């Protein structure tokens, strides 16, 4: 009986993680940032947008314990499994994947810090500068970073207003980019 309950709990948690991750992917693939804000529609640009939306969830639940902390870790694990799979689909061999995952993980965790500091300070300009540095480092000017920063701030506010129970049941509320 206990094994069955444990199996059910695991399946339920897996379903929540899958729903949350699917919503992160859907938000990261909204066409406006790519079409109107010049976010590069490349594997690295898509990684950046996935990282950004995962950051928003992790930032929202950063001080939580228990189920939300576990869910955050499982969604992060799913993200890196997806990155691993994507690298293999791009033709990177078994020997090269771990090295690239390690580099992408360093990039991801660096973004958690820079985006988090800007959001915590309510500093749109610092957030836009961090986004430019990470998404369009080669661009001398990227005015659209301000649009993306505004969207990120709105998404942060929407997630901050969401009850913990919604997240625990697999519901996220990312706004539409405008």
TrEMBL record:
- Which residue ranges does the record assign to the Ubiquinol-cytochrome c chaperone domain? 36-174
Q: Which family does it belong to?
A: Belongs to the UPF0174 family.
Name the record gives this protein? Ubiquinol-cytochrome c chaperone domain-containing protein
From what organism does this protein derive?
Nitratireductor basaltis
Source lineage: Bacteria, Pseudomonadati, Pseudomonadota, Alphaproteobacteria, Hyphomicrobiales
